[in-house]
Amino acid sequence: MYILYDVADSIATITLNRPEAANAQNGALLEELNDAWVKAAEDPEVKVIILRAEGKHFSAGHDLKPDPSTPTPAKITLEDIYNIEARRYLEFSLRWRNIPKPSIAAVQGRCIAGALLLCWPCDLIIAADDAKFSDPVVAMGIGGVEYHGHTWELGARKAKEILFTGRAVTAEEAEKVGMVNKVVPRADLDAETRALAAQIAVMPSFGLRQAKRAVNQTLDVQGFYAAIQSVFDIHETGHGNALSVSGFPVLVNLNQMKDTIKSVN
Prior knowledge:
With 265 residues, the chain is an alpha/beta fold. It has ten helices and nine strands. The strands form two sheets. Strands 1-2-3-4-6-9 form a six-stranded mixed sheet, with helices on both faces. Residues 249-265 have low confidence and may be disordered.
């Protein structure tokens, strides 16, 4: 329903296909997306994976509307929230990060909050010149999205700046700090991403797998994995605080959150 999948020339292309909602992620989209990642990982013909999106924006993040794929219990507890987010956000993002094949995210337009959980796990990111990356969830009383790549992707001070202010990071800024590999004109995004994937696809599969493992293991030895797990629990305290304040888990300060998103748009 929400994901397109194609394989050609040893390259699997996974496409977010909910452009009418700026590719906002509900539960069904994330389940379909994970299925596509697993399919690409298990296909021996696939050597490189591209993640891209239809429409003006890569993704507006998690869909804040009620999700019919996740029935709401009569009483919402922190355990309910924790169980859903541990699987769909933390577990999925870590799984995609560790798939033993190179992956490239092609990002255009807005990439807000939960959208970072889709592009950050990819090995490489190609950004259109109109791409903007943001995580304004401090406005919701939460310290950042569930998969805390901020410090690793941006450096400590830049991570604090975008969290404290909610402002967007431009594609040019993202390239300067190393979060993005290359910035290209919007019209060239798909072609440039495909060309890079084709260049990688001629390399031996086992060599690519070992190179990826070497880099990821180095980050894990430096503390990446432990930090991601620990900061997820910090994120969940934000939901716990929202429950205690309003009895509603996610949408506390929602109007302020919407204003913040409008400001980065």
